[in-house]
Each structure stands twice: as structure tokens, then as C-alpha cells.
TrEMBL record:
Region: Disordered, residue numbers: 1-24, 314-354, 372-467
Residues in coiled coil: none
Domain of life: Eukaryota
The organism of origin for this protein: Rhynchophorus ferrugineus (Red palm weevil)
GO BP, one annotated term: rRNA processing
Pfam families linked to this entry: Brix
Stated name of the protein: Brix domain-containing protein
Length: 467
């Protein structure tokens, strides 16, 4: 029995061949693109928002001007994309549209103010950017979204579903490295968007001890002994005085940072990463950028106007279905006509082939009949009697092709007798010298003087006399 073939090293190490884990497939994925007028830092803001949505987003997505929204919707299903975010710019300002794929709803926000991530980081005294924090999804925190109103519930549901859910019973605190904060102001109806980095630091440790714990070399120039360095109460952490007791928590898990003990107290510290956005909800649509308007901040319709709009929308939908049905019927009729034409063409080709065979057979029989008649007349004139029936019967029982030989070369001519055979002497005699001025090969009658005129001929005569 043959041995079973093993998979190669590259095949075994290829993660795409094995498929993605179930939790990755079920996690919400997103596309972040930009549309509209160029300029206004739209592209930079799009890249910063992609950084916020990592790792379940297309970071290096290359969108073009000719790409429409339906192009992204068509590829969203195989890629497990659930949300599409569009930053657009018009003459009136910048807008943010968040839609649920593939059938909506769509939330449209107007961007009142914004700050890029590079501006936020450059304004900090201590800049902290950890690349490993972007390998896991952020924690979403919503504030003041529990008020009355359908639009608040829609916004809260949309923002929560954009990020993966966290199970508090089995969550790993080492994976919670970032936080997205959304604060709604009921008075101004504005939403503040912030993005922070989460750091867990031990509480009650002086600045000197903290340096030693973190593996840094302390400066002992102002200390007489090592005990002075640890006993100094003036040396405290810069953020130790700012810590509020509300920020102190007891960590129940082991944190991958120096100084944190499983049962000890730790402080939660946030460092802003950016970008900053101030949003205002403009409208909520039922469909994907085209549907019934469920909420509008500036335009309010009466019940009669809503009913009229709904009737127009229903008529438009029915007209679209009718046109679609007509197009499908036309397509079926064209395919039917095309199939009938194909069958007629094949039938005509077959009929033409049969008629050609009959014509060839008839022509062959006519040639044989004419040839037999000529032979019979010649025999009758010469002999004076009628020939037998089977004497000149050359008709074959069926249509057979003439026998072909396998000799493709030309037939050789018969060999001549010895007295008629040509030899090399005949060629020599044929090309023998002839007398006369027209014979170029007759060297006897040729003028021996070289070409060159009288001077050359005189030199030739003198040389001839010397000899």
C-alpha cells in the first residue's frame, strides 16, 4: 500500500488555507472611505479613523474616484464587512455617514470640529504611542445616550455594533489597551468623540522605586546611601498627585506590566491618541443612503406630508419592479430567439451538406454514363455488332474514393540507353570556344591590351619588346 503524502511546510504554515477563527468571522468588520470634494484634511481624517477601527478594518484600502458605494457593498458579503463609514466634504462642510450593510440604516452626522491624531499627540507633554495596542479592538464607552427618543437608541445601537462585544466573565485585561469614548450633550445635541490609550500603573510607589522596578538606572548623585533614595518622600511620580481614589481598582488578573500585583491596587491612566471629533446628528435613513427618513434634525414633516411621501415612494418601488420584470421578459425573449436562430443555422448546415453529397453523386453517374456511351459507339462502328451488356459496364456498386498510394515523390523518368546517355564530355564540347568577336570566352581573338587608353597600351608594348 502506498504511503500517504504529507503536506508541505509552506502549506502547513499557511493560515489562510486553514481558515479564520470563528470569533474573527463573527466580529464586525468595516470599510472607511472618503468621497466628495478634495482637500480639507479629509484623507488624513479617514486614515486616523481607520486606525481607530483596527484590527477589523481595511487599513490599506485604495478607493478611486470612479468607485461607487455599490462597489463596496458588492464585496462586503464575502469579506464579512458589516459597516461602511464615509467621510465626505461639500461646499457647506464635512459630513460623516455610518451605514449598516447591506440594507441600512444610515446615520448622517455633520462634523462641527475635528483635530487630527498628529495634532493631538504633538500637544501632549508625554507622547505615548504603542503599536501593540492596535492589535486588539478598543473598548466602547457611551455616556448620556439613555435619554428618550428613537434617534438616541439608534445611535447607541449603531456605535455599539461597530465594535466587538466583550464578555466580562472571560475577558483578558491584557487585550484591553484602547478606549473609545462617546459623550452626548442633550443641551447642544453634540457628540464628542475621543480615543484613548489605557495604561495600568501601580499605586503607592515613589518615583525612584518605579524607576528601579521598570529596569531604569536611577541618578544617585544627590543621595549619600541607597536608603536615602528610597526613603525620600519628595520624590513621587508626576501623575501620583493627580490620581483620584475613584481611579484605583483592584486587578483580579495578572497584568503584563512591572509593579502590578494580582491582588494589589492599580491606577487606570488614559493617554489620548486622537482624533477628536465633534458630531451633530442630521438625519437617519431607513435604507442604504436612499430610503425613508426616520429622523431629521432641521426638517419636520406633518403626518399628511409623510403619507404623501410614502405613497410616492411606493409608486416608485412598484414602477421599478415593473421595469425589472419587463427587462427580464425581454432578456428571455432574446435568449429564445437566439436559440431558435442557432437551431435553424445548424439545420441549414446539415441540409446543405446532404444536397452537396447528392449533387456529387449525380455528377459522377453522369460522367460514367457518357463514358460508357462513347465506348459502345466506337465498338459498334469498328466491329459492326452490338456489345454485350456487361462489356463496358464501369459502374461501381457504391460511392468509393479513388485508391491513394503512399508514394508522395515524383515518378522517375525511364533510364536511357548508353548511346543516348549524356556525359561530362558533352558539356565540355557544348561550351567549347568559338571563333568570333562576340565570344567573350575566346581568348585568342581577345585584345590583349589592358584598359587604360594610349598611355597604358604604350607601356604594354614596351614591356612586350623587352621580353
Amino acid at each position: 500500500m502506498a504511503r500517504k503524502r504529507r503536506k508541505g511546510r509552506s502549506v502547513r504554515r499557511n493560515q489562510n488555507a486553514q481558515g479564520e477563527p470563528e470569533d474573527v468571522i463573527k466580529a464586525p468588520h468595516s470599510f472607511v472611505i472618503h468621497k466628495g470634494l478634495p482637500g480639507g484634511h479629509t484623507l488624513e481624517l479617514t486614515k486616523d479613523f481607520r486606525k481607530v477601527m483596527e484590527p477589523f478594518t481595511a487599513t490599506s484600502l485604495k478607493e478611486r474616484k470612479k468607485n461607487a458605494v455599490k462597489d463596496f457593498v458588492s464585496v462586503a458579503g464575502p469579506l464579512h464587512v458589516t459597516h461602511l463609514t464615509i467621510f465626505s466634504r461639500t461646499e457647506l462642510g464635512m459630513y460623516l455617514k455610518i451605514m449598516r450593510l447591506p440594507r441600512g440604516p444610515t446615520l448622517t452626522f455633520k462634523i462641527q470640529n475635528f483635530s487630527l491624531a498628529r495634532d493631538v499627540i504633538s500637544s501632549l507633554k508625554k507622547q505615548v504611542v504603542v503599536d501593540t495596542a492596535f492589535k486588539t479592538s478598543p473598548l466602547i464607552v457611551l455616556n448620556s445616550f439613555s435619554g428618550e427618543g428613537l434617534h438616541l437608541k439608534m445611535m447607541a445601537s449603531m456605535f455599539q455594533n461597530m465594535f466587538p462585544t466583550i464578555n466580562l466573565s472571560n475577558v483578558d485585561l491584557n487585550t484591553v489597551r484602547r478606549c473609545v469614548l462617546l459623550n452626548y450633550n442633550p443641551t447642544t445635541k453634540l457628540i464628542d468623540f475621543r480615543h484613548y490609550n489605557i495604561k495600568v500603573a501601580p499605586v503607592g510607589i515613589s518615583k525612584g522605586v518605579k524607576k528601579v522596578v521598570q529596569g531604569k538606572v536611577p541618578n544617585l548623585a544627590s543621595c549619600h546611601t541607597i536608603s536615602d533614595f528610597f526613603a525620600k518622600t519628595s520624590i513621587m511620580s508626576e501623575s501620583e498627585a493627580e490620581d483620584d481614589p475613584c481611579n484605583h481598582v483592584t486587578v483580579g488578573q495578572k497584568i503584563r506590566s512591572r509593579g502590578n500585583i494580582g491582588s494589589g491596587k492599580s491606577a487606570i491612566r488614559l493617554t489620548e491618541l486622537g482624533p477628536r471629533l465633534t458630531l451633530q446628528l442630521m438625519k437617519i435613513e431607513d435604507g442604504l443612503l436612499d430610503g425613508e427618513v426616520l429622523y431629521h434634525d432641521q426638517i419636520h414633516k406633518t403626518e399628511e406630508e409623510k403619507l404623501e411621501i410614502q405613497k410616492k415612494r411606493e409608486m416608485k418601488r412598484k414602477l421599478k419592479q415593473k421595469r425589472k420584470k419587463i427587462q427580464e421578459d425581454n432578456k428571455k425573449n432574446k435568449e429564445k430567439i437566439k436559440q431558435e436562430h442557432k437551431e435553424r443555422s445548424l439545420k441549414g448546415m446539415k441540409k446543405e451538406t446532404e444536397s452537396d453529397i447528392q449533387m456529387k453523386k449525380f455528377a459522377y453517374e453522369m460522367d460514367q454514363t457518357v463514358e460508357d456511351d462513347d465506348d459502345r459507339e466506337y465498338y459498334k462502328e469498328e466491329v459492326g455488332e452490338e456489345p454485350d451488356k456487361d462489356m463496358f459496364s464501369s459502374k461501381s456498386s457504391g460511392m468509393k474514393r479513388p485508391a491513394k498510394t503512399f508514394h508522395t515523390s515524383k515518378i522517375k523518368r525511364p533510364r536511357l540507353e548508353d548511346n543516348k546517355r549524356k556525359t561530362n564530355d558533352d558539356k565540355f564540347n557544348k561550351n567549347k570556344f568559338r571563333k568570333g568577336p562576340n565570344n567573350k570566352r575566346n581568348f585568342k581573338n581577345r585584345d590583349p591590351r589592358p584598359i587604360g587608353g594610349k598611355v597604358a597600351s604604350a607601356k604594354f608594348e614596351r614591356r612586350k619588346m623587352r621580353r
